[in-house]
Specification:
The protein has one domain: Arginase, Chain A, CATH 3.40.800. It is α/β, with parallel strands linked by helices. The strands form 2 sheets. An 8-stranded parallel sheet has the order 2-1-5-10-9-6-7-8, with helices on both faces. Helix 8 links the parallel strand 9 and strand 10. Helix 1 crosses helix 9 and helix 8 runs parallel beside helix 9. The two termini are 32 Å apart.
Length: 364
């Protein structure tokens, strides 16, 4: 089974200002390079081309249109992004930037995600797994708010497109990025046709652009109550902890929801080398999660790139996730598998999630 990599070099041209960790005042001589570097995608592309060979195809990407973004995002907010880009770019919020090339990158990134979702929604017998290799990432972007390097929520736009066009009725999103899918949560918080299951470290709210805590008490509202499933994990959680979270929460919830389409917000920043996370996943851990989501999807699966900021280990972990999803092993070994899982408290945290959601789903 091949992976269909949806990638366009337009996504490399988007830039954030450097110094992301230094606001509002930088006291050092040299600004820290922004973590969301184009090299992230360049390394992933090389890894996949070098080691998947005939198991990967690379179709051309069709950029999406503004009206499709506006199914999820406020037009005035999108105007703000476009106008900032036209004026030369700059920061739209503390950690997120816009450059003159950003609007084109956004349209290609969202177009890649839409194309991946469309393929699986319209051709459930397709013997392939689409993967959108994109930036800027999307899962923090809210309907009218940029956040955490994200400007447009690619997964939310793809999910809404699949539903709006009548291709599917129910979409599940599994978000394994080490940061919570707060933007996706905000997009669908009162709806029962989109399920979000997010595994993440407990960062809480990190400012006015990110008011959500993504803790156990944020579970949806109205018709959407119970359809936002947040699973905070303690620092040091690794392969075994994530496997337990899948066993006790992810798999029973998604299986019961029975989606027509399963989208994965595939952020590999839970890896042990990532500078923006606190967990210790390895290539093997991501391979196992790829295998599990493939089994859960029953044929209608698409992966969309989110975070992952060690430009070397990201490529290994992404290769592992895709290997699991398509049932292929390249033989590449994880050269960065250096740390042991170091937080047995993950069992307790997952048990708390089970207790929080057992009134909605057969977790346990």
């Amino acid at each position: 089974m091949p992976v269909e990599v949806r990638y366009d070099e337009a996504c490399l041209d988007h830039r954030h200002p450097d110094g992301a960790y230094d606001l509002p005042l930088r006291e050092t001589e040299v600004a820290e390079p922004h973590p969301d570097r184009p090299e992230r995608l360049t390394n992933v592309e090389r890894m996949l081309r070098a080691h998947l060979g005939e198991h990967a195809t690379w179709p051309a990407v069709e950029p999406t249109t503004r009206d499709r973004l506006e199914r999820v995002h406020d037009p005035d907010y999108l105007d703000e992004v476009w106008e900032l880009a036209a004026s030369g770019g700059g920061r739209i919020e503390a950690t997120t930037g816009v450059s003159p090339e950003t609007p084109e990158a956004i349209l290609y990134a969202a177009g890649s995600a839409i194309g991946a979702a469309e393929q699986q929604a319209l051709d459930t017998d397709a013997d392939t797994v689409p993967y959108a290799l994109v930036r800027p990432s999307g899962h923090h972007a809210q309907p009218a708010q940029a956040d955490g390097y994200c400007l447009v929520n690619n997964v939310a736009v793809a999910a809404e497109h699949a539903i709006e066009t009548g291709a599917v009725e129910r979409v599940a999103v599994v978000d394994w990025d080490v940061h919570p899918g707060n933007g996706t949560q905000e997009c669908f918080y009162d709806r029962d046709d989109v399920l979000l299951v997010s595994l993440h470290n407990d960062f809480g709210s990190w400012g006015p652009a990110h008011p959500q805590t993504s803790r156990l008490d944020e579970r949806g509202t109205g018709d959407g109550e119970g359809y936002t499933v947040n699973v905070p994990l303690p620092p040091g959680t690794g392969n075994e902890g994530y496997a337990t979270a899948f066993d006790r929460v992810v798999e029973p919830v998604v299986d019961t929801f029975d989606p027509d389409l399963l989208l994965v917000s595939a952020g590999q920043d839970g890896s042990q080398m990532d500078p923006n996370g606190n967990n210790v996943l390895t290539m093997d851990g991501f391979r196992e999660m790829g295998r599990r989501v493939r089994a859960l999807a029953g044929g209608s699966l698409a992966l969309v790139q989110e975070g992952g900021y060690n430009v070397s280990h990201l490529a290994y972990c992404t290769l592992g996730a895709i290997e699991g999803a398509i049932g292929v092993e390249s033989g590449v070994e994880d050269r960065y598998d250096l740390l042991a899982e170091c937080n047995p408290a993950s069992e307790e945290w997952i048990a708390d999630a089970v207790e929080a959601y057992e009134e909605f789903w057969p977790v346990g």
